[in-house]
């Protein structure tokens, strides 16, 4: 009986050995990536509850991950955990709208936890410890670092376009008015990410019209959105980021009134937490 058992174990081992070898594929191999994450026809946009800051995640139908801003350093652990829950291993592009701490503070933790292929920012700087840590971590960990300008195509497929529409150059003393503004279109659905753009920047921006979802500038500060801007963009949904207990007491109530009187649906991460918008390019569903 013992001899038969040993023979059976040897036979089973022979059958198992090729299976083990066949599944050993080097990390980054295209075959294993397609197996693990098959393509689908939906794009996802996640707005992450970053307390006093902003961070948005785009997942394309091809499963490329693009991160817009990183929130503050005080919420970076939450952002890292959220990305891990989404099974993110690599970030195709990290877009930084402006050098304020509420937008770049989480970058060191991001680049230490994920492979970031490239960072694109507006090329503006602040003399702060947060900015110095941001720049140092990007130089050490990121493959490519470049300045983004209006007209730059960041990612494109047959049905999806992600591009910078502002600034053409850095011209304002307030670096927030030089924010990198991003337009995302997937078939019939569009998102506009305005960074921390203020009134001077808004006047200089060639405003796109009929946007479906607007990420409101400056966490809902009234200086980041004008009535004329809202009339031109004419969004169906406005997403306001930043925590409910933020020290700036945002969003501004005048802005909330401007949105409501235009019939724009409002979602706030400070009230609902993380948001996940999914679209097939024709309609949008979202989970709170």
Automatic annotation (TrEMBL):
Superkingdom of the source species: Bacteria
Annotated Pfam families: Lactamase_B
InterPro entries linked to this entry: ComA-like_MBL, Competence_DNA_uptake, Metallo-B-lactamas, RibonucZ/Hydroxyglut_hydro
Residue ranges constituting the Metallo-beta-lactamase domain according to the UniProt record: 56-240
Entry-linked PANTHER family: BETA-LACTAMASE DOMAIN PROTEIN, DNA INTERNALIZATION/COMPETENCE PROTEIN COMEC/REC2
Protein name according to UniProt: Metallo-beta-lactamase domain-containing protein
């Amino acid at each position: 009986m013992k001899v038969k058992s040993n023979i059976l174990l040897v036979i089973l081992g022979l059958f198992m050995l090729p299976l083990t070898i066949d599944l050993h594929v080097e990390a980054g191999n295209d075959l294993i990536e397609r197996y693990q994450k098959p393509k689908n026809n939906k794009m996802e946009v996640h707005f992450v509850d970053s307390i006093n800051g902003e961070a948005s995640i785009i997942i394309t139908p091809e499963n490329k991950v693009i991160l817009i801003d990183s929130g503050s350093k005080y919420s970076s652990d939450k952002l890292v955990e959220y990305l891990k829950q989404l099974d993110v291993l690599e970030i195709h592009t990290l877009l930084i709208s402006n050098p304020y701490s509420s937008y770049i503070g989480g970058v060191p933790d991001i680049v230490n936890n994920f492979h970031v292929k490239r960072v694109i920012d507006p090329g503006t700087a602040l003399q702060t410890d947060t900015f110095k840590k941001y720049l140092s971590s990007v130089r050490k960990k990121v493959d490519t670092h470049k300045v983004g300008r209006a007209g730059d195509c960041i990612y494109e497929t047959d049905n999806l376009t992600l591009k910078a529409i502002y600034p053409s150059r850095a011209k304002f003393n307030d670096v927030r008015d030089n924010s990198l503004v991003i337009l995302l279109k997937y078939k019939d659905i569009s998102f506009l990410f305005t960074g921390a753009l203020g009134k001077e920047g808004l006047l200089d921006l060639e405003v796109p019209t009929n946007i479906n979802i607007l990420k409101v500038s400056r966490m809902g500060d009234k200086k980041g959105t004008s009535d004329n801007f809202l009339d031109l963009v004419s969004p169906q949904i406005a997403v306001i980021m930043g925590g409910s207990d933020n020290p700036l007491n945002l969003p501004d109530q005048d802005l909330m009134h401007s949105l409501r009187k235009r019939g724009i649906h409002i979602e706030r991460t400070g009230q609902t937490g993380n948001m996940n918008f999914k679209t097939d390019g024709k309609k949008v569903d979202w989970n709170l």
